[in-house]
Amino acid sequence: MTTTEIRRPPIPAAGTLTTAGLTTVLLGMALPLLDFFIVNVALPTIDADLGASTATLELLVAGYGTAYALLLVIGGRLGDAFGRRRLFLAGLAAFTLTSLLCGLAPTAGALVAARIAQGASAAMLMPQVLSVIQASTSGERRSRALGMYGAAGGISMVAGQLLGGLLIHADLAGSGWRPIFLVNVPIGLAGLLIARRTIPESRSPHPLGVDGRGTALFGLAMLALLIPLLEGRALGWPGWVWALFAVFPFAMAGFVVTQRRSERAGKVPLLPPSVLRSPGLGRGLLLASPFFAAFSGFMFAFAVASQDGLGLGPLGSGVAMSPLALGFLASSLVSSRLVARFGVRVITYGTGLQAFGMVVLAVTTLVAWPDLDVLAFAPGLLLTGLGQGAGMTTVFRVVLARVPADRAGVGSGALTTVQQTSMALGVAAFGTLFAVAAEPGMLGMRNAFVLIITIQALTSLLLSIFSAKLPDPR
Fold first, then answer.
1. Is the model's pLDDT at 406 over the cut of 70?
2. What is the pTM (predicted TM-score) of this model?
3. Phi, psi of 9 (to 5 degrees)
4. Is 208 exposed, middle or buried (0-12, 13-18, 19+ CB in 10 A)?
């Protein structure tokens, strides 16, 4: 497998991205992120309806994220070559169709297959969002658009479980969990109609090839980690599981070597080392990836602990998340002004506040379990949301603000690949850790949940401490 060259005549540079166009592309970003997390709150209901195992439930989240992560860069490069609006429309159409298939799935296996296809569709859609912003904006307008991108992304991640809880509680026509996927269908169809008129078309003047060898090695490394984490516990950790674990370092080493050789040969590999070495992108992703992993694990554990451990049900679990969503929204809306005044210290203070919010949540859980209600979670989650809204939107700005427009697909692909890979691995690793620790005779549900909260607090603190090494976004 080699890097396949894609040659297409360039079209004129993109026009100005209007407010309506920006809103539409942000919708295209919000749907895939919502669907990564919206399924968390539905897991107990899906289990009761389809008889899914714990490993299958984790695969509903991690399988989606893995397909998403593996194909993101390819999606970005196809957009650079064939037109970003064209790929956005194709990705949104595919995402709408696969959402319908998820909502109609008759078995757990069919749902997993549809979720993986949905993740692949998201990989076609998502990279076009940042590429359109990068190609169609500049200066302060681009900075504001990237801030809105970070805010919309964070809100989507934390609002997914609230929306999921509301839809499941409504139980429309006795449909149970299915509306969490079916709701995407009318939204997607409306988005398709609006996007055709509001999103300017653009292509790269020098479209890049597809790094087949790098993609294969990266996929092998991912699967060598994910399959054992998802299936090992249920199967009793057989020998082949440990053999797969052993494959991971060799696959990753091969991937790194391939990326370096490909770039030295004048090609642009899956994750170009030269791009990753840029101060904003490289350092930002290195610091943010543990945070993304721990956050996805926390959201998974919260959905299970609040329903199976506390009996809050889907609606109660979703509503309990609303302070986090509201806090995130409030601080993200003022993050641009905060950055103008404090620069990179917004990340330091924001993620530090988030770590403190997690500590408050851990203490509350230790003291009040099992008598916790929705209001008991509010102080810790509100502080967490306020800190995350300011900190993480600024991280997105730092990571992407200095990526040149002609490398929009490369930069956005690197960011979203690392983000989605981290979240998929986080669900697999921390979901398994939580499930094992929560078993009778181990830590129990309360202490297992506190363990996951503590890990999230530590990753937030790590990002806060080392954020001073990031370039100032002003």
1. no
2. 0.77
3. -65, 135
4. buried
